[in-house]
Each structure stands twice: as C-alpha cells, then as structure tokens.
Amino acid sequence: MGAWLYILRCNDGSYYTGTTRADLERRVAEHQSGHFPGYTETRRPVELAYSEYFDQITDAIAAERQIKGGSRVKKEALMSGDFAKLKESARRHRSPSLHGSRRGAPRRSSP
After folding, report:
1. Distance CA 70, CA 91 (A)
2. Cβ–Cβ < 8 Å for 48, 28
3. Does 13 map to a domain?
4. Which domain holds residue 29?
5. Is residue 46 domain-resident?
6. Is there a smaller number of Cβ atoms within 10 Å at the N or the C end of the chain?
7. Could you give the residue ranges of the DSSP H alpha helices within 18-110?
8. In angstroms, rounded to a whole number, what is the distance separating the alpha carbons of residues 21 and 44?
C-alpha cells in the first residue's frame, strides 16, 4: 500500500512535513480543523504546498525524514520544482566538511 508525502505551509510562514496512507485531501482537512494536536493546531489555517505519492510507505517515510532534516531553502526549491536550486543547496550544505571544518575538534584549555 502506498502513501503520500506532503508539506503544509502554515499561517505563520513555517512548513510542516508529514506522510499519510489515508486520502490526502482528508488529511489536509484534518490538519485544517485542528484534529491533530501539536504543530499545525496552533498555526492554522494551513495550505497544501507540496505532495508526492510513493508506492511504498517506507519510501514516503524516508523522503519525509530527508525533507525534515533539510533547510528552508531546500524545501522551497522542492516545492517550486527548482531542481537546480535543490542540487545547489545540497552542495552548499555539505561544503563546510569538505574544507576542513573543526567541528568536534578538541578544545584547548587556557593555562
């Protein structure tokens, strides 16, 4: 059984990403009505900004995790279908580690 991946644009300008096996229109209506306590409940009204159907629920969930971990720029590039910008934002996100980032390096203590 397949599933939908969706991104909602909330009233405060933020985005909510989710998946559902149910009918997509029904799920959006449930968010709109405040049926789900949590993030979208206090950010209504919401608007469907992006959706994609996957044949396997596991693929939809994997895509959801990837999107949730991405930047706002990446989400907006995906929603607008700007795959060049999506690719560029992914490249920029990885670049610090390619240039010898010191993240995680031991700190020196002062004498």
Report:
1. 12
2. yes
3. yes
4. 3-93
5. yes
6. C
7. 24-33, 57-68, 72-80, 83-98
8. 22
**Is residue 66 in some structural domain?**
yes
Predicted TM-score (pTM) of the model is 0.79
Q: CA 4 → CA 24, 27, 56, 84, 108, distances in Å?
A: 7, 10, 9, 24, 49
CATH number at residue 70: 3.40.1440
Q: Which residues of the chain have pLDDT under 50?
A: 95-111
Residue 51 lies in a domain: yes
- Torsion, Cα 41 44 47 49, to 10 degrees, reads -60
Token pair recorded at residue 35 = 């049926």
How many structural domains are present in the chain?
A: 1
Distance CA 64, CA 10 (A): 17
Q: Say if CB 72 and CB 15 are below 8 A apart.
A: yes
Sign of the CA dihedral 65, 50, 17, 52? negative
